[in-house]
Every structure is written in structure tokens, then in C-alpha cells.
Write a structure and sequence with these properties.
Layout lengths: L4 E6 L2 E8 L4 E6 L7 H19 L5 H5 L3
Antiparallel strand pairs: 1-2, 2-3
């Protein structure tokens, strides 16, 4: 996940593509092999995005320390 854009590849082929939203994750494309797992995948990616956001803005996180906030 990079700047809210989700891209999972298997070799050179994209398997999952999507983006983060305020309330979670929106998967735009999912390979047929992953369609049965689509909801679980979205839930897991949303939890990971929430944890990354929490760590990013934590009081002792890199952004607040860099700007002295």
C-alpha cells in the first residue's frame, strides 16, 4: 500500500488493485482466483491501513517528531 493505493502482484500480473477510503478499503479489481476471498482480503487490508495510519500519527511517530508537534 503506497499513498492509499493498493496493488498486489503475482509476478508481473496484477492480482488485486484498489485504494484506501475514509471507512476502509475499496477493491477495484480482483483476480478470479481471489474472488472467494475478496471480503476477507478487504477486511485485512482495511485493518492494516488503520494500523499504519495510527502509527503514522502517533505522538512519538515520525511526522509529529519531524515537525516538532
Amino acid at each position: 500500500m503506497d499513498f492509499g493505493i493498493i496493488s498486489i502482484k503475482e509476478g508481473d500480473l496484477p492480482v488485486v488493485r484498489g485504494h484506501g477510503t475514509i471507512s476502509g478499503v475499496r477493491l477495484l479489481e480482483v483476480a478470479p482466483d481471489f474472488e472467494p476471498l475478496e471480503r476477507e482480503l478487504a477486511c485485512g487490508l482495511a485493518l492494516r491501513a488503520a494500523a499504519a495510519d495510527k502509527d503514522f500519527w502517533a505522538e512519538d511517530g515520525p511526522v509529529l517528531q519531524r515537525y516538532g508537534l
